[in-house]
Fold GATA-type domain-containing protein.
Amino acid sequence: MEHEMRAEYEEGVSPADPGAEVKIWHMVRDASARAMCGRPLDPAAATQSAQAWGTPRGEPFCHSCGALYLREGP
């Protein structure tokens, strides 16, 4: 199963907004727009490789997604 990280933004902020800052990173399966923790995410949100998990590039990261990701084994 493929995983990637997908961004969540503050409410009312679109990924297309100039200067849109990531509120928190989530882990998703198979390029989904639903985080492993169940949170719906914007399909146009920024993504990055699952390899960024656990590095400064992947912070802040959803703790629930992290726990589920570890259970599946990266």
Observations:
- The chain has a mean pLDDT of 94.
